[in-house]
Task: inverse folding
């Protein structure tokens, strides 16, 4: 394992020299063990920071903490790792020290830090719940996976840490990463496979979609409106707006929305909504916390039989059979 690749991350508190929280997080990154976890209880926060090194160019950090006092962290990272940060808790504001740019990452959003040397500040308020997942992969590894695709290369080195809404397809993978039940080498293989899946979905939906060639006949404003429409659906799957209401929300007429959405995403709006409802239903069934009828209602179906038919149409089995 290449220690130089893994090290290079450090945080400190500019207002408190002996900060137990910063010391605990640094200890997680100083160790070259495959797995390392630091529990926080009574030192200004409660919760944990868990880091798993999958290989020398791939790692996952899951942080889930609630602060009992105001804390400021100044962090420095000088590793060439492509870092996707997913915010699952309260919004976070990151301010770079070099040019003082700010990135506001809301709950359910993600952004990318491209692995160039970076220093910045994170400020947490008393009572704030910080829940985040960072997936870090080496630049060379990603370029090799995508056969040095120029779009991927441009994205890696030119992105500006713009926040993106995290779609359900990615949230489901994050759930799998956080709830892995395997251990030792089996866990490493599982996590590697899940990271590969996440990269494939992320680049398809964020990078390649933004440079899609299916935009003929669509203006820049049309594409932006259609992407907004997709984000609205993704964030309101259980109660997706009608076509008329959605068209009004993105300032397009219904015909333009229908034809443009199918041209850009390859599927009609109605079919896309049903597809997302079924993905959400499958996730809820896998959690095994709800009955089939409850899941049907949670994704917007009052008719359990109709829901079951749509579910089987996509996944090949009835919801009740899927739960077994």
Result:
């Amino acid at each position: 394992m290449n220690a130089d690749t893994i090290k290079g991350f450090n945080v400190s508190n500019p207002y408190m020299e002996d900060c137990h929280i910063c010391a605990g997080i640094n200890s997680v990154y100083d160790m070259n063990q495959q797995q390392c976890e630091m529990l926080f209880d009574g030192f200004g926060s409660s919760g944990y920071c868990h880091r798993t090194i999958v290989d020398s160019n791939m790692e996952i950090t899951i942080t889930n903490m609630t602060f009992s006092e105001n804390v400021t962290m100044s962090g420095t990272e000088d590793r060439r790792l492509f870092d996707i940060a997913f915010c699952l808790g309260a919004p976070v504001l990151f301010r770079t020290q070099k040019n003082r740019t700010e990135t506001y990452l809301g709950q359910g959003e993600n952004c990318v830090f491209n692995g160039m040397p970076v220093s910045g500040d994170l400020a947490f308020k008393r009572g704030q719940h910080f829940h985040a997942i960072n997936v870090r992969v080496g630049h060379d590894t990603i370029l090799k996976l995508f056969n040095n695709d120029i779009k991927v290369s441009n994205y890696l080195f030119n992105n500006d840490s713009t926040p993106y809404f995290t779609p359900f397809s990615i949230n489901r993978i994050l759930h799998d990463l956080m709830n892995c039940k395997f251990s030792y080498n089996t866990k490493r293989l599982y996590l590697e496979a899940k990271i590969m899946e996440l990269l494939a979905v992320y680049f398809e939906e964020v990078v390649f979609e933004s440079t899609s060639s299916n935009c003929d006949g669509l203006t820049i404003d049309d594409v932006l409106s259609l992407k907004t429409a997709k984000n609205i659906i993704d964030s309101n799957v259980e109660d997706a707006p009608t076509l008329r209401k959605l068209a009004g929300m993105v300032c397009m007429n219904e015909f333009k929305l229908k034809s443009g959405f199918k041209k850009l995403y390859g599927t009609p709006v109605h079919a896309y909504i049903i597809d997302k409802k079924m993905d959400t239903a499958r996730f809820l069934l896998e959690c095994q916390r709800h009955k089939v009828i409850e899941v049907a209602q949670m994704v917007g179906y009052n008719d359990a039989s109709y829901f079951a038919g749509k579910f089987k149409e996509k996944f090949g089995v009835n919801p009740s059979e899927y739960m077994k």
